[in-house]
Design goal:
The protein is an alpha/beta fold and about 450 residues long. It has 16 helices and twelve strands. Helix 2 packs antiparallel against helix 16, helix 3 (about 65-90) runs parallel beside helix 16 (about 415-455) and helix 7 crosses helix 15.
C-alpha cells in the first residue's frame, strides 16, 4: 500500500509539473526545461541499467514499483526545469517562485520515497537464525547452507551442531514464511545436508524454489555413537528432538507454528527416529519421510540395545517401539507419510514394510517405494528422499504463508537477474520513447509559437 500511495502521489506531482511545463512552452522558450528532461532521463536510463546489472536481486517485484520509477524519471526533470525557467525566464510574479519551489520539493520528496519503496526490497538483507544470508546469483539459485547450534536446554543431550539449508525461494521473497523439515541421518554419520540437497536438485529448479527449510540435526552425539532415538541412559534423545529442536525452530526460523508446515524425516537410524516421533508427537509434525528406517531401535543388535539402553527390560524395549505408539494412539488425522526401502535390503526392508502397513492401518496417508536393485545404502537413500520430497511438494504439503509478490513481465521460472533485465530494459525503452515524444511535442509547440509570432505579411 505504501508503494501504491507513493505512486499516486508522484503521479499527481507529475501532472502538476507537466502543466507547468506546457505553460512554459506555450509562453516562453523553456530551453532549460527541455535540457533538464533530456539529461535527467538519460541519467535515469544509465542508472537503471547499472543497478540491474550490479544487483543480485534486481527484480522490481510488482507493477507499482515499475511505474514508480517511470514516474520519477519524468516528474523530477519537469519540476527542475520549471524552477529553472521560472527563475530566469519568467517575469517576477508574486508567489510564483514560491509555488514552483514547493512543487519541486514535493516532487523530489515523493520521488525519493517512490524509488526507495521500489528498489529497497531488491537490496534488503536476508537474516536467518541470527546470521546474514548472502544474496548472490548462487544463493538465489541453490539456497544457502550454514551450521547452527541448538542448545539442549531441556534434554541435556550432547548433540553436535546441526546444519540448516535456507531455500532460494525464501532468499528471493524473505517476507513469505515457509515450512520446515527436521531431518536425522544414519549411523555412523554426521548431520549432513548432502543427500537432501542431491534429492532436491534432482527434482529440478522449481522444487528448489518451493522447498522448505531443511534442518539436519544430530541425534547420535558422535559419529560412531549409536544411542537409541529414545530417552534412555545414553541420553534423552527423544526430548532433544521433540522439545529442544522445535523450540529452536520456533525462535529462529520464519515457520508458522502449525503442524501442517512441519515435517520430520530420516534415513536408517534417523528413519527410526522419524517414524517414532511422528507416531508419538503427531501434534508437532503433519508429514513424515522415512528411508530404510528399522522397525526397532538398535537393529540389528537388538539384544545389545535391550541390555545396555533399556536396563535389560524387554517390556521397556517393547514400549519404545513405533508399532506400540501407533497402536496406543489409535486413528490419526491428516498425517502424510512416505516410506522407502531397497529391494535387496533383507536386514531393514521387512521392518520398513511392517511399520508402513501399521501406519496405514492407523490412518496415515502412506506412500511406499521399493527401490529396485538396491540395498540399504546408495541409490535407496537418494531415491527415497527424492520420492518423499516429490510427494510432499506435488501434493501441497509444503505450504507457504504470505502472498508472493507478483513479478511483472516475468514467468515463475525466470531467475531474478533475468527478470530484472526484462523489467529494466522495458522501463529504459519506455523512458526513451516517451522522452522522444516530449522532445517532439516541445519542438512542435515551439514551431507553432514562432509561426504565431511571425504572421505572414498581407
Amino acid at each position: 500500500m505504501l508503494l501504491v500511495g507513493l505512486c499516486l502521489g508522484v503521479g499527481a506531482l507529475l501532472v502538476l509539473s507537466s502543466i507547468v511545463f506546457v505553460r512554459r512552452a506555450l509562453v516562453y522558450s523553456s530551453n532549460r526545461t527541455l535540457i533538464a528532461v533530456v539529461v535527467w532521463q538519460l541519467v535515469s536510463v544509465v542508472a537503471l541499467l547499472v543497478w540491474s546489472s550490479n544487483t543480485a536481486r534486481p527484480d522490481l517485484v510488482e507493477l507499482p514499483g515499475w511505474i514508480a520509477l517511470g514516474f520519477v524519471a519524468f516528474a523530477v526533470p519537469l519540476a527542475v526545469g520549471a524552477l529553472l525557467d521560472g527563475k530566469w525566464s519568467v517575469p517576477p510574479r508574486p508567489g510564483l517562485k514560491i509555488v514552483t519551489i514547493a512543487l519541486l520539493a514535493l516532487t523530489l520528496t515523493g520521488s525519493v520515497g517512490a524509488v526507495a519503496a521500489a528498489i529497497v526490497p531488491s537490496l534488503s538483507r536476508t537474516t536467518v537464525a541470527g546470521k546474514q544470508v548472502p544474496i548472490t546469483a548462487e544463493t538465489l539459485q541453490n539456497g544457502y547452507s550454514m551450521a547452527v547450534h541448538i542448545p539442549p536446554t531441556t534434554s541435556g543431550f550432547s548433540a553436535r551442531d546441526a546444519n540448516l539449508w535456507v531455500p532460494p525461494g525464501y532468499i528471493l521473497h524473505p517476507d513469505v514464511r515457509r515450512p520446515v523439515v527436521e531431518t536425522m541421518m544414519g549411523q555412523p554419520g554426521d548431520a549432513s545436508l548432502g543427500a537432501t540437497l542431491n534429492a532436491l536438485h534432482a527434482l529440478g529448479s522449481n522444487a528448489l524454489q518451493n522447498a522448505p527449510f531443511v534442518l539436519v540435526v544430530d541425534q547420535l552425539g558422535g559419529r560412531n555413537l549409536n544411542p537409541p532415538c529414545r530417552d534412555t541412559v545414553a541420553g534423552r534423545v527423544t526430548t532433544y528432538l521433540s522439545v529442544d529442536v522445535p523450540r529452536w525452530i520456533r525462535a529462529n526460523l520464519p515457520v508458522p507454528d502449525t503442524r501442517t508446515y512441519w515435517t520430520v524425516a530420516g534415513y536408517s537410524h534417523g528413519g527410526d527416529c522419524a517414524e517414532f516421533l511422528e507416531a508419538t508427537f503427531p501434534s508437532i509434525w503433519s508429514n513424515m519421510i522415512s528411508v530404510s528406517g528399522p522397525d526397532r531401535p538398535g537393529t540389528p543388535h537388538v539384544a545389545y540395545a535391550i541390555a545396555h539402553y533399556f536396563g535389560g527390560s524387554q517390556a521397556a524395549f517393547d514400549a519404545s517401539l513405533t508399532a506400540t505408539a501407533l497402536r496406543a494412539h489409535g486413528h490419526y488425522k491428516d498425517t502424510v507419510a512416505t516410506f522407502a526401502t531397497g529391494a535387496l535390503d533383507t536386514k531393514y526392508g521387512p521392518g520398513v514394510i511392517e511399520v508402513a502397513s501399521l501406519a496405514d492401518e492407523a490412518g496415515w496417508h502412506v506412500s511406499t517405494i521399493i527401490v529396485p536393485n538396491s540395498d540399504h545404502i546408495g541409490v535407496t537413500l537418494n531415491e527415497g528422499l527424492k520420492f518423499g520430497y516429490h510427494k510432499l511438494l506435488t501434493t501441497g504439503r509444503f505450504p507457504t504463508e504470505g502472498a508472493t509478490p507478483p513479478r511483472y513481465l516475468c514467468s515463475s521460472q525466470a531467475t531474478p537477474s533475468t527478470c530484472g533485465g526484462y523489467q529494466s530494459a522495458t522501463l529504459a525503452g519506455s523512458i526513451a520513447l516517451i522522452d522522444q515524444g516530449l522532445v517532439i511535442a516541445f519542438f512542435v509547440i515551439q514551431l507553432l509559437l514562432r509561426l504565431r509570432s511571425n504572421p505572414k505579411p498581407e
